[in-house]
Amino acid sequence: MPNLHEIKKRLSSISDMRKITNAMYLISSTKMRKAKADLDRTRPFFEALKVEIKRIFRQGDMPESRYFYPVDVNEKLTGTFACLVITGDKGLAGAYNYNVIKKALELAEGGNDIKWYVVGEYGRQLLTQRGIKIEQSFLYTAQNPTMYRARKISDVLLDAFNRDMFTKIYVAYTDMQGMSDSAMLTRILPFHRKEFITTTVEEPVKEPFEYQPSVSVVLRNVMQSYIAGFIYSALVDSFCSEQHARMTAMKSANDNAEKLMSELSVQYNRLRQAAITGEITEVAAGAKAQLEHRQGEC
């Protein structure tokens, strides 16, 4: 059974650890709010892009584009696929990183040939440990998602896609909705046309727009920006989800620390009271012995 000194030392150690976990909780909370604010400021631009793509579809006589499934072809593209895996750089975030890797590996369960692209140190380590070859690691910190980095990643993926290195592009990331998050595996190329064909009844286009130099060129440029925006959104969502997961983990650590400190405090007080009682008993016994000794001398 531990003595008073050992319990006091352990209480001090847990108290110091709780200060660290509480600080990490507050830091993650601040980072998450800032990242969500950045995303909210850029989201209207990409929503406007989606509206313009829908406008092109409403023109009629939609040209063929490698970014969309052909009208008369079912979703049965085979060959090599690409998967962009977005994880964190650090742990202490519960099962956040593991869930993303688990979701990404579902893509390989059908025996598909996958080229892996990774953002985040944890993802690189987890895939390497499983003996999976990584096509390219984007050596950007997952802690600072920016539109510039999203465009760089988009350029690499689109360049390989345009050179027919793979037929589909997927993104494995964590989507945050409200205060809950879940690992997602989303195909970003090619798109289904129905994703941009509105189901609401709209006024037909009376005066079609003129696209220069052509509808195909305009659509290609717009889609490139739209894909970069999706990747940026995935980076920010993943970053926010990581901070949320770390906040949850740190809150759980704080709660456990408080519970443990409460139990140790009770144990410490009991031992201290027992020690005080023992000392009082010894003093009383000594006083009684001295009194009996004096009475014997008399």
Discrete helix count: 5
* Portion of residues within helices: 55-70%
Largest beta sheet: strand ordering: 3-2-1-4-5
Measured by DSSP, the beta-strand proportion falls in: 5-15%
Q: Give Rg in angstroms.
A: 31 Å
What structural class is derived from the secondary structure elements?
alpha/beta
Reading the helices and strands in chain order gives HEHEHEHEEH
**Globular, elongated, flat, extended or rod-shaped: what is the shape?**
elongated
Main beta-sheet annotation: 5 strands, mixed
What is the total domain count?
2
Mind telling me the CATH superfamily name of the largest domain? ATP synthase, F1 complex, gamma subunit
Write structural notes for this entry.
With 298 residues, the chain is of the alpha/beta class. It has 2 domains: 4-22 and 252-293, Helix Hairpins; 35-247, 3-Layer(aba) Sandwich (Pyruvate Kinase, Chain: A, domain 1). It is built from 5 helices and 5 strands. A 5-stranded mixed β-sheet has the order 3-2-1-4-5, sandwiched between helices. Helix 2 crosses helix 3. The chain is elongated and about 125 Å long.
SSE map:
Layout: H1 4-58, E1 80-86, H2 96-105, E2 113-119, H3 121-129, E3 134-138, H4 147-162, E4 168-177, E5 180-189, H5 215-297
Parallel strand pairs: 1-2, 1-4, 2-3
Antiparallel strand pairs: 4-5
Helix pairs in contact: 1-5, 2-3, 4-5
